[in-house]
Amino acid sequence: MIRGVIIINDQGKPRLIKFYEFQPPDKQQELVRSIYRVLCSRAENVSNFVKADSLFGPDVRLVYKTFATLYFVFIFDKSENELAMIDLMQVFVETLNKCFREVCELDIVFNFYKVHMILDEIILGGQVLETSSEEVANAVDAISRLEKNANSMIPSIPGWQR
Amino acid sequence: MGSQGGFGQSKEFLDLIKSIGESRSKAEEDRIVLREVETLKLRLNDPNTPKYKLKEYIIRLLYVEMLGHDASFGYIHAVKMTHDENLLLKRSGYLAVTLFLNEDHDLIILIVNTIQKDLKSDNYLVVCAALNAVCRLINEETIPAVLPQVVELLGHQKEAVRKKAVMALHRFSQKAPGSVSHLISNFRKKLCDNDPGVMGAALCPLFDLITADVDKYKDLVVSFVNILKQVAERRLPKTYDYHQMPAPFIQIKLLKILSLLGIGDKKASEQMYTIVGDIMRKCDSTSNIGNAILYESICCVSSLHPNPKLLEAAADAIAKFLKSDSHNLKYLGIDALTRLIKINPEIAEQHQLAVIDCLEDPDDTLKRKTFDLLYKMTKSSNVEVIVDRMIEYMISINDSHYKTEIASRCVELGEQFAPSNQWFIQTMNKVFEHAGDLVNAKVAHNLMKLIAEGFGEDDDTADSQLRSSAVESYLRIMGEPKLPSAFLQVICWVLGEYGIADDKYSSSYIIGKLCDVAEAHPDDDTVKAYAVTGIMKIYSFEIASGKPVDLLPECQSLIEEMLASHSTDLQQRAYELQSIFTLDAQAVKKIMPVDSTCDDIESDKNLSFLDGYVQQAIENGAQPYIPESERFGISSISDFKSHEEHETSAHALRFEAYELPKPSLPHNIPPVLASSTELVPVEPSYVADILHPTSAPSASDAGSSELKLRLDGVQKKWGRPTYSSPAPSSSSIDQVKVQNETPRPDSASSSKPKIPDTSYISRKQQIEISPEKQKLAASLFGGSAKSEGRHLPSQKNSKTQNHTSDTSRSSKAPAPDTAVKTSQPPPDLLDMGEPSIASSTPSVDPFKQFEGLFDFTQETTPVSTGGVDGATKDSDFTSLFADMSLSAQTHIDPNPEPNGLRGSKVEPSAHQLNKGPNLKEALEKDALVRHVGVTPSGQNPILFKDLLG
């Protein structure tokens, strides 16, 4: 199963932390820090895999990939395939790209809620739910529309800004 | 959709992020976040806060927690939001709750009711949100509350809901297998769901269930094979294709399941050969996902009952992986190789150079994987090279977790395959030196045992050679600073036991060294204890052999220091050492026999050797001993009293419950004392204590029984003065000295040259001097060739060798081979898809493509939007930031100009710029590519209906 998904920027600031088994906040911070340390020490042009058994227990690995200023990290155990995880990450990023048109770090910071929504459509309870970025984008769209419609009482977006 | 006119968040949130980005220190950031926490606390607790603001506040709270600050005050608000009718608020609430709370949190009970209600909602999106929460928040106790609804949702008309319901059930079975054991048939049923997505979801729980108990699911082998066949033949709707592979994630899951079902099951394996072979042939090895499937197939092949043809295909695939430039593929190649050598050890030889390349690769992950491989392929012929390499690597890394793992592997391999004991000791020395505190204490004891027992054969000269080489190496090493405690213990023990065994070193030299160790580690009681016992042994040997002994001044001060130690154990040992000098040679010889560590110590429980003494005492008017049981049984209290009084009279201070007779005491008396009954002054228990460190190296920190023994002795010190009674005068020692000038038997072998040590060094040099990989390869892999009567370790020959082994293999097992051939289906028309894919990119070098794997796929998919889009977004961006100071951007992004932000786009936009100008064109292009590449097949809605009946 997939243990967690983390996005960190190149300064080590977490941008998204999602664990599929509960981790207390302190532990989360510690894990993010140790993962960041490991990732920083990796040279360029090496494999995208890192053994994470010292952090998460035996047979747990992580796959990471850098996209511009961000590290995307998937943590998973031996019931998942490493290369497939890279592709799943690709699906995630593609979907983000679709939903935000060319996503950047700021999009992820500000649209935290939506990023979670997208991720929830791809991975549920640590299992891969959907691998077509089109399907995911459609689902997210449907939810967003519905949320908007159901919210007549919420003023239109410009009003939100103050 | 998208950014909803910018980022869709309030100015306050923008400001918060801006100021956090600007903060120059962690402290400043903390201040800002704490201020934010205060604001949120106020707002959330304010009953007048408008509802539509709540979502934002909760999101901000999530953000605060993500940065590592306490947000627990807001949990209850998140819970409250889940109760809201408004979908947006409800979903935000659910999101927050799933991130904030663990399933055992007290607040969960307040959500269960809402979840129950939402699971019944007409709106499937509400149901989905509730199912998301169910997966995360329901624990064993609350499962029954939602279980009926979740089961009902398995039949929901929306496939998205069915899928999530399967996942939720899976989650339940993970958390509390008992709670859903009666529902497992549902997973089987869902395999025939109309929707392949739901079927794919059902594979996840089945995978777990099969991992737990294979036998229950053997009947599903046919179904899984059929499903996999249909998937591989592209009979799923095209929407399930991913990068032109049909439903790759489902294929991977199925292959994993098949490999579980095929382990050690020839019949089941035979059913799978065809489809696994098909998949391996069809895999598009130019795409990432294609390789993922290929790798999974190799794993599957390696766990199935061996099939020569498949193994050959797997070996070919591994060769491709290892030759690739991609580190990812090399990594998988090594991993696959590790799996395959279990079945066919020769495969590794074909790839020896690639393996060595990986071993020297700068990529740590790859290196570790390669060490895993080496660990698995170690045998007595290559253990020296492999362990040497491992130790070298172990020294170079800092990660203590991995260091421990490598150290214990070195020890394990050493113990299992050591070519010689000298080598073993040298290796262990290195392991201890660099990772001594990380390895199991048992390893140290094993090492001491090995040195004591030697080869286990009756070859005394070899044993003493071994010991003297150990002593020599320790004397060399022990001066180095920062040696780990466990290693020092071994050193002290070995020096004490064998330091002067071959007369090469004088006793005062060894004792001086031991004193140095004790002095250099004032805080380590265990090491000090070992050192003192070592000193005691040396002195005893000297006394026993009748040599004149004088206490070295540094030793004297050490004893004095220890007599005042807080540790009773150290005090005990110091007293013991002191008392050794008061005994004559005969007594000492009995107490500390030379080289007797391996002798079994038998205890005479009847204490027959004391009979004479007892008799004498009774004759002198002492009361006869009455066993404890009789004493109480007869209840002759007066007798008992008088007995006690008699004892009491000997001492001034006496408390009643102080000293019940201890029946356990006599157990410790060794037979060695049998002949030395005249040496009364030494208390039996005390003798046992002295002997103890000799018999069991684990001395002070050993088991509780030994601890008890020692405490007995300590009590004695407070109790009666017998402890250090100076019975035999020192003159008797002198007397004995004159008589016992005979050399000890052990020293006979002392003059032997130190051959083993030098031979080891020369061997090591040889390895280090020849850096060419060929040599290394020969030493790593050549061993196996030698042991199997081959002689072709070099690369050039490996090809032919491969060939011969192949032919021999196929001739050996012709039956399964032909069976596979006949059972292969006629070529499938649908397979035509593959060549056309290849033809669509004929001019591209497949390896080039590999390098730019993702970029390449980007270009053929509609995912990346055109540069025009990007430009419009830029303007968006600038307008949005118009009211923010420029400095805000500089801190979030390295480039100050708004244009620079494009540089930080997650997708590299350079690629997109020279591509089609708009989304539509890209889409069309992609559609065309897919059309050309894939033969579309009709939808097949009732795909799996026929499988299970």
From TrEMBL, chain A:
Q: What InterPro entries does UniProt report for this protein, alphabetically?
A: AP_complex_ssu, AP_mu_sigma_su, Clathrin_sm-chain_CS, Longin-like_dom_sf
Q: State the family named in the UniProt similarity comment for this chain.
A: Belongs to the adaptor complexes small subunit family.
The record's annotation in Pfam families points to: Clat_adaptor_s
**Domain named AP complex mu/sigma subunit: which ranges?**
1-145
Q: What is this protein called?
A: AP complex subunit sigma
Where is it mostly found?
Answer: membrane
Q: Name one GO cellular component term.
A: endomembrane system
For this UniProt record, give its keywords in alphabetical order, as a comma-separated list. Membrane, Protein transport, Transport
Q: Where in the cell is it found?
A: Endomembrane system
An example GO biological process term is: intracellular protein transport
From TrEMBL, chain B:
The terms describing its cellular component in GO are:
AP-4 adaptor complex; endomembrane system
Q: Which Gene3D superfamilies match?
A: Leucine-rich Repeat Variant (1.25.10.10)
- Provide the alphabetized UniProt keywords: Golgi apparatus, Membrane, Protein transport, Transport
Give all residue intervals belonging to the Clathrin/coatomer adaptor adaptin-like N-terminal domain.
45-582
According to the UniProt entry, the coiled-coil residues are none
Subcellular localization, as worded in the UniProt entry:
Endomembrane system
Q: Where is the composition biased (Polar residues)?
A: 733-752, 759-768, 794-811
Transport listed as a keyword = yes
Q: Where is this region: Disordered?
A: 718-769, 783-844, 891-922
UniProt main location, coarse: membrane
Under Pfam families, the record lists: Adaptin_N
Q: Which GO terms describe its biological process?
A: intracellular protein transport; vesicle-mediated transport
Query: Which protein family is named in the record?
Result: Belongs to the adaptor complexes large subunit family.
Its function? Answer: Subunit of novel type of clathrin- or non-clathrin-associated protein coat involved in targeting proteins from the trans-Golgi network (TGN) to the endosomal-lysosomal system.
- Subunit: Adaptor protein complex 4 (AP-4) is a heterotetramer composed of two large adaptins, a medium adaptin and a small adaptin.
**Under what name is this protein listed?**
AP-4 complex subunit epsilon
